[in-house]
Amino acid sequence: MPSIGAHLGVPGCREDVLGLPNAERYVVVLVDGLGWHLVRGAIRDAPYLASLLGDGKPITAGVPSTTVTSLASLGTGLPPGQHGMAGYTSRVPSTGEILNALTWESDLVARSYQSKPTLFERAAEAGVAVSSVALERFEFSGLTEAGLRGPDFVGYAEERDTERRIALTVAAAQRGRRSLVYAYERELDHTGHVEGCGSSSWLRHLSRVDDMIERLRAELPDDVVLIVTGDHGMVDVPQEHQILAEDVPDLMAGVDALAGEGRFRQLYVDRDSPAAVAARWADHLGDRAWVRTREQAIEDGWFGPVDPALVERWGHVLVALQTDWAVMTRQFPRELSLVGMHGSLTPAEMTVPLFVD
User: Which SS3 state, helix, strand or coil, does residue 183 take?
Assistant: First the structure.
C-alpha cells in the first residue's frame, strides 16, 4: 500500500519499493492463503495467474505468517512490530485475555487496540476514492476496524455471486479522479484448512478464483492497474506430526498461557524463566522448530522494529515449527481438525505472489 500511495500522492508515501506501474487507479485483490509456491505448483489449475508468473515476483509476509498480522500490515503499511496485531490469538497485556483477532469476541475497542492510521485512511484524506469490497459481515468486524478501516465499504451477501462481486469492484475502481480498491477473497484459505492445500477441493477452488480474477481484469478499464497477492501460504500437516502440548508435561511446565496457532505458538511465562521454558521446548522439539525468547526473536528481526508500548503482546517464548510439524492444544479444539496450516517461517508459508496486470 505505501508503494501504491507513492503513485497516488498520499502524504508520507515517498517511494515505490515494488516498481509498480504508474497509474491513478489501482485494484488490489487479496486472496487469503495464496502462497507463491502453491501457485507455482498448480499452474494447470490457474492459467490466468500462471500467465502472470513471468513478470510476477515473490514477496514476504510478516511474522507470524497469518491473516490477522498480514492484513494489518497490508492496511497500515507497517511491519507487525509497529501495528501490534501479534497473531491469530495473542494475550492482551492489560486484561490477560487471549484475544482471537479474527472473531474478536472481546470488549476491546479495535480502533484503540490498533491506533496507528491505516493507508486507507491516509489515502482518503488525500482525496483518493478508497473502497473495500468484501462480505457484508466483515464491515464492522474487529479486524476491519483495527487494520483495514478507512475505505467506503462495498459489501456483498454471497461469496459465490461472482457477477455481483466483479460489478461492485469495477464500479468502485471508477470512482473519483484517483481510486484505490481493496477486494478480499477468503474461501481458498478455508478450503485449505479443511481439506488441505494439496487436495483436489483446493485446486478446484483455486480454479474458480483464477477464473474470477481473469474476468475481473477483462471488465476493468485499461487505466486500472490490477494487483493480486496473498497474506500467507500454507502447508499440510499430517496427523502424526501434530504434537499435543498437554500430552508432553515438559512443554507446559512454566507456561501460564498458550496462544498463537499450530505452526506458531506464543508462550506467556509469568512465574518461570522464559529462557528455561525456551530451553525445554527446544530440547523436546529439536530440529522440528525454531524456538526463541521474545528478546531473541526481536533481535533476530522477526517482527521488524517493535514499538516498546506493544512488546508485551508477543509471547515470552516463540515457537515456529519447521517442515510439516505443528503443536496443537486442547484449549482450541477446533484447530485439532485442521489439515492445512500456516503461521511459521518456512518459504511455503512466508512467500506470497505479487502479480500485476
Answer: strand
Distance set, CA 311 to CA 19, 73, 110 (Å): 32, 16, 18
Tell me the mean pLDDT in the region 2-8: 98
Q: Which residues of 12-39 are buried (b: 16+ CB within 10 A; e: fewer)?
A: ebeeeeeebeeebbbbbbbbbbbbbbbb
How large is the angle between the packed helices 200-219 and 162-173, nearest 10 degrees?
Answer: 40
Under DSSP, is residue 204 helix (H, G, I), strand (E, B) or coil?
Answer: helix
One-letter identity of residue 331: Q
132 in Cβ contact with 90 (< 8 Å)? no
- CB 183 within 8 Å of CB 29: yes
β strands within 61-188, DSSP E = 89-91, 98-100, 129-135, 152-156, 179-185
CB contact at 8 A, 24 and 179 = yes
Residue with cell 508468473: 53
Residue 83 DSSP SS3: helix
Residue 332, all three cell numbers: 482450541
Would you state the pLDDT for residue 244?
A: 97
Q: What tens digit of pLDDT does each residue of 206-224 get? A: 999 999 999 999 999 999 9
Respond yes or no on whether the N-terminal peptide bond of residue 64 is cis (omega within 30° of 0).
Answer: yes
Question: H/E element holding 123?
Answer: helix 119-125
Distance separating alpha carbons of residues 135 and 338, to the nearest angstrom:
23
What are the Cα distances from residue 96, in Å, to 89, 106, 108, 247, 307?
12, 12, 12, 25, 19
Which stretches of 7-165 are assigned E, i.e. beta strand?
25-31, 57-60, 89-91, 98-100, 129-135, 152-156
What does each C-alpha distance from 336 to 133, 151, 236, 256 come to in angstroms? 32, 36, 13, 21
Q: Name the residue with cell 480454479.
A: 207
CB 220 within 8 A of CB 23: no
